[in-house]
Amino acid sequence: MALSNKQIEYLQSCGHRWNIKVGATGSGKSWLDYAIVVPKRLMALRGQGAAVLLGNTQGTLSRNILDPMRDIWGDKLVGAISSDNTARLFGHRVHILGADNRKHVARIQGMTIEYAYGDEMTTWHEDVFQMLKSRLRCAHSYFDGTANPADPHHFVKTFIDSDADTYCQTSTIDDNPFLPVEFVENLKKEYAGTVYYNRFILGQWAAAEGIIYRGFADSIAAGSNQFIWPNNKPIWRVHIGIDFGGTGSAHSFVATGVLPGYQGAVGLMSQRIPAQGTTPDDLYQSFLCFAEAVFTSLGKIDAVYCDSAEQVLIRGLQSYLRTTRYAWLAGRIHNAAKISITDRIHLTAILMGGGRFWYTDQAEGLRDALASALWKSKGSGKDERLDDGTTDIDTLDAFEYTIERDYKRYLRLS
């Protein structure tokens, strides 16, 4: 079993109460844990407290740790998660828990924890982490965890910099000698010009600030044709996103073309109309005109994803469409998935960086919204997009509704 220098270093140094690997995506952090660290810790348990594995959600913990651990060690040593949120791992009963929500605090409250493992720590709710700190109360309790860097003010970074008994190892993507060179090069291109390059390539704690899509904005400012759709591949599916405006905002429609196999996305058309003074009937008529233009140009509309916060407007739009020759479209209207905004930004950034996003001259509103999107400078430790009325958040939301449901497919994670 070949190990990198960083992995050997960690095994030689992880005798502290808190042992945390922080670094780039693909730097080998999790592999070391499910192959060696977690099995070793579990087999050394003395039975004086509980063993707990925590992740963003139970599902992500299964995919990131349990499934690959099972591939190495087999079903007999790595059991399935039972209905009581535990699994038999290397002969021990281990609690398998999510940590993304404050409600999970109750699940570890009152426990004495002999060993805890933490996956994707920067995605946890802070209250869960604070409760965990008080539960590791055996003299020999250990914690091993991994994290991709986030904002420098994040609570995990604050804890690492405290006087706790902590060993923290930082790694870059180049610290993993086993990754294919082509994969590393492509990943660097996809993240270039964004905060994700600092975090996921260099392993640095970096604030999300300034222009979100810097490479895209610079290309537009330079008059480059890099992101203009060359119309050289067939459009496989057409999705429309609708963001309903409120006070101080606008209604926005964006049509996006999906390439076969989710190879990329094309901003085909966009339109923004003032919310103030626009009646629901005005809105429905405007959407019908937009949909007609899309259908006339492309010959298809596969789905319409709407801001799920406005159910009355959605039902009204469906009723209106049923009275028109586009009655068939009423059945293709769905609620937007509304995954986290940071995940939507991450997806858009990767599509841009990987040369998999384009726009047409009928989507200039979308172009301008993307080029002017800004991070909110706050210093709270959280990544937030600026939403104070000075940028076109409405068009960004509408566009993101058209791609977010296929997040894993675009990132080739499914």
TrEMBL record:
Top-level taxon of the source organism: Bacteria
Alphabetical list of Pfam families matching this protein: Terminase_6N
InterPro entries: P-loop_NTPase, Viral_DNA_packaging_terminase
PANTHER family per record: PBSX PHAGE TERMINASE LARGE SUBUNIT, PTHR39184
The protein's name: PBSX family phage terminase large subunit
Species of the source: Neobittarella massiliensis
